[in-house]
């Protein structure tokens, strides 16, 4: 004999959960309220509803009350666990509309699923959820460094949909330690991962521990290097859900197969609120220091962490998108099969020993300008022509132009000894100074590079 949970008529008071306006009559299941089910019924655990928990709940659910009640009334309860094949479900829903996918997600997980809202075009997810007519929850990560326009947008969305967004905040002690040890803008020098880990990834981890599934706005066209194979539903490869362990959390991506322009056509058609930053050229919106507008024709992710390798533009929330076979290209560990770049007779190719000797010299016969590069980096590839032209212009001028491949086994040395923060890094070694000078501008055309050299030689 199995037991089924019934709904208590009691309403929730003081709840911080986000729900659609259609959820006013929702009745929340209460642990300990049971009715006898059919003697031969089996229980599908994927369909069971847990007691209401906040999105940031850390502990696993305590089912001791349920177990005690069951054993008291029917000592020989056996449950048959039906495991759903979500790979197969992803195939079945691959050609489904975002509305159909959203409806299926909310139907399956009810109060155990929530929409992750970033303050950008993720508002489309909220609109789809509203259109299903089902209750839904929304949460967002407040990193403490969002644009003022994004905060105003959050407030507008809450009022428009009659919901309360469940905000997650970073640990104050961790933020304080990071800022005191490295300053407010360390990510410009050593990459965004550490800051994102403190301000976004760990708060998200706490949020997801209170859920069995979450809904994201990932699209395949957002980042071809990391999101081109995002399915509409998947077992989350990085985070854990309420029950803990791999497979305890499902990730739903209802708009995975939708083009960005179609998302915007939908938003305009439904006349929903949008972040005012979009009108200022911002497409992909994150934290204020790490987000900027993009120019016409530029890819939307070029406005995020623009100083870093384009193939690794994930903050950690969707780290599972980074492919293992591309790890060497992403993090510089191991060899790559990319063809070399900056090939010119006017350029000197420095070995590890060569650049170590150059860095040790306190008085040089000639000045040197050296690019620290990785051949797979698109930003290095983009500046190849201008850097080769610079070498040709400076030939015989008393300034040597060189290159040093700084990925793979040389990356740690380059970071520790040569000021490498991202690719490419350009250093000028003056004739009478031991310490190299780092080129700080993102303008890598030949005229800008020449002006840099002329100002220092």
Automatic annotation (TrEMBL):
Region called Disordered, residue ranges: 1-22
GO process terms (BP): cysteine biosynthetic process; sulfate assimilation, phosphoadenylyl sulfate reduction by phosphoadenylyl-sulfate reductase (thioredoxin)
Any one GO cellular component localisation term in the record: chloroplast
Domain Thioredoxin residues, every copy: 336-457
MF term (GO), any: adenylyl-sulfate reductase (glutathione) activity
Top-rank lineage group of the source organism: Eukaryota
Record-listed E.C. numbers: 1.8.4.9
Catalytic reaction equation(s): glutathione disulfide + sulfite + AMP + 2 H(+) = adenosine 5'-phosphosulfate + 2 glutathione
Enzyme class: oxidoreductase
Keyword Oxidoreductase tagged: yes
NCBIfam families: APS_reduc (TIGR00424), PRK02090.1 (NF002537)
Protein name in the entry: adenylyl-sulfate reductase (glutathione)
